[in-house]
Write a structure and sequence with these properties.
Shape: globular
CATH class of the largest domain: Alpha Beta
Number of domains: 3
Number of strands: 10
Radius of gyration: 24 Å
GO molecular function: S-adenosylmethionine-dependent methyltransferase activity
Structural class: alpha/beta
InterPro entries: Bact_Chemotaxis_MeTrfase, CheR_C, CheR_MeTrfase, SAM-dependent_MTases_sf, TPR-like_helical_dom_sf
CATH architecture of the largest domain: 3-Layer(aba) Sandwich
Region (Disordered): 15-35, 337-368
Pfam family, one: CheR
Strand order of the largest sheet: 6-3-2-7-8-10-9
Distance between the termini: 15 Å
Biased composition (Low complexity): 353-368
Number of helices: 22
CATH superfamily of the largest domain: Vaccinia Virus protein VP39
């Protein structure tokens, strides 16, 4: 990110020995006591989900149960009494939250977001106006301090109000201290800062004037509590809620979305991570594409219907906004499964960007042989379309279901909505089966992009294009990867190539894996992206 070299006074480097990793459970008590069956702890997870909206898919459930087992041993509590005691013991409840929440982050994560903040939020601020910002689900504070550094560079820190909230009080305390390990500077935008470290084994400390600028407070995003700060309703110019909503169930995502929408002033911005679920189905945001994912903006004039329903507490899912101007990797107007022959096309926005990566052609539907009843796959399709990713995966992993290309690609799509790492691992297992399938390599590219491995994404999408040179969506994805790699000239070449290939096709033709897009709609996206590259001199902000 440009300007990071100007943060030299943002960090005070200290040769302190590394302390135990904050926010993680301490070692288990040496006294073993009776064995604690994991089955006795599952009701605790269900209670936590009801209270916070946190979900524990298979990829995280075992780790969560083991963290609970360590907690009950530390406190000498019977597993069946853990939830009951936590209801009446705030310290135990805090320890429970800390054991089950994810506190992983680093400075200037998704640098494209900070460029967008500079180019949009800061640039549009009225002279002399105050800037009010909220890091919702702030983890250990790296995100809010990154924002504080940017505002300090812009001369806006003194007239900025910065709030940072999280469910776990232990990670909030880490944020208040502002002391971190060098690993917190691992992002590519942090290299100028990392170069300042004189001892890679020492902690460093955020400058005092930045720590004083941030207000840390505990908050449960799923609750009905007012947003932090005075006059919180319609109060914030900018809210960052990144890598938080992916851990919540769908109902909680909807509640949190409406709460964040209410906390924004008209014209205020909400930034989420590319892996987070789409939000425009829950509140009438204006949606703008950017290399760092979708940017959400509260309209200057709120839609009358939404305001009326909110006042009556009868908010329903609004009609989805037009998607022709949005990048295909972020918008799905229908499920690829729903577009199979004989299945109605039902609008189904994906939970993750990777949820719209593959589709099944007519020939693939007609020919595969299944060792198990086809109804198993039908049930998996139904679970997927209802966004029950865990059930879809369980059905697709059922004994006797032959791993055909269709099953393997579908399995990867479902896994991608639960855990990127698990999907990447499954992709390795399917390498031999799918090595000649361009859709598989397109999916691998999308998974790599979601895990911020741009080079692996570029390699995979090139393989997809080698296997299918006229694969329009692979060309489209390749242009996005070049933008992530800060190579606007390569992005322009990819977009121009895609534009030429589109010109040879009928406007009304549907684009393969385009999720309902026509060639005309894709061409409009290409033209908008090329205009954006030209107007920004190549530094695309979105």
């Amino acid at each position: 990110m440009g300007g990071d070299g100007d943060h030299r006074e943002a960090l005070l480097l200290r040769g302190q020995p590394l302390s135990p990793a904050p926010g993680l459970p301490a070692s288990a008590d040496s006294s073993t006591g009776r064995p604690v069956p994991l089955s006795e702890l599952r009701p605790v997870l269900e209670w936590i989900q009801e209270r916070t909206g946190l979900v524990f898919p298979r990829a995280r459930r075992t780790h969560a149960l083991r963290a609970l087992r360590k907690l009950v041993r530390q406190h000498g509590i019977e597993p069946t009494e853990l939830a009951t005691q936590a209801r009446h013991d705030p310290a135990l409840l805090d320890a429970l939250y800390n054991a089950l929440t994810v506190s992983e982050s680093y400075f200037f994560r998704i640098p494209e977001h900070f460029e967008a903040i500079r180019a949009r939020v800061v640039a549009e601020l009225e002279p002399g106006a105050r800037l009010r910002c909220w890091s919702a689900g702030c983890s250990e504070g790296q995100e809010i301090y990154s924002l504080a550094m940017l505002l300090d560079e812009q001369g806006l820190l003194d007239r900025s109000e910065l709030w940072a909230t999280d469910l776990s009080p232990q990670v909030l305390e880490v944020g208040r201290r502002g002391r971190y390990r060098p690993w917190a500077l691992r992002g590519r935008a942090c290299q100028p800062l990392r170069a300042l470290l004189t001892d890679e084994s020492a902690e460093f400390e955020v400058a005092e004037h930045l720590r004083r600028a941030v207000h840390f407070a505990q908050d449960n995003l799923v609750s009905d509590a007012p947003a932090p700060g005075p006059g919180a309703c319609g109060h914030f110019d900018l809210i960052l809620c990144r890598h938080v909503l992916i851990y919540l169930d769908k109902e909680s995502v909807a509640r949190v979305t409406r709460r964040l929408y209410a906390a924004l002033r008209p014209g205020g911005w909400l930034l989420c991570a590319p892996a987070d679920p789409l939000l425009f189905e829950h509140a009438p945001f204006e949606v703008l594409p950017s290399p760092g994912g979708l940017l959400y903006r509260k309209p200057e004039v709120e839609p009358t219907t939404y305001a009326h329903l909110t006042a009556k507490n009868e908010v329903r899912e609004p009609q989805l906004p037009p998607t022709a101007g949005l990048p295909a990797e972020f918008v799905s107007s229908r499920s690829a499964l729903a577009s199979m022959p004989g299945r109605p096309a039902t609008p189904t926005p994906p939970r993750l960007p990777t949820s719209s990566l593959t589709s099944t052609s007519r020939s693939e539907v007609a020919s595969p042989a299944f060792a198990a009843s086809p109804s198993v796959l039908d049930d998996a399709r139904a679970a997927f379309e209802s966004r029950d990713w865990t059930r879809a995966v369980r059905l697709l992993e059922a004994p006797g279901l032959e791993p055909t290309e269709e099953v393997a690609l579908f399995h990867l799509r479902a896994l991608a909505n639960l855990d990127i790492a698990s999907a990447l691992s499954a992709a390795q297992r399917y390498e031999t089966l799918l090595t000649h399938h361009p859709h598989f390599h397109y999916l691998r590219a999308r998974l790599a992009l979601a895990s911020r491995d741009d080079n692996a994404a570029l390699s995979a999408v090139r393989r997809a294009l080698y296997l299918q040179p006229d694969f329009l969506m692979a060309h489209h994805l390749q242009s996005g990867i070049w933008m992530h790699l800060a190579n606007p000239e390569r992005a322009r070449i990819s977009l121009t190539t895609l534009q030429q290939r589109c010109s040879a096709r009928p406007d009304e033709q549907l684009v393969e894996l385009g999720e309902g897009r026509t060639v005309a709609a894709l061409r409009a996206e290409i033209e908008a992206a090329l205009r954006s590259l030209s107007s920004s001199g190549g530094d695309h902000v979105g």
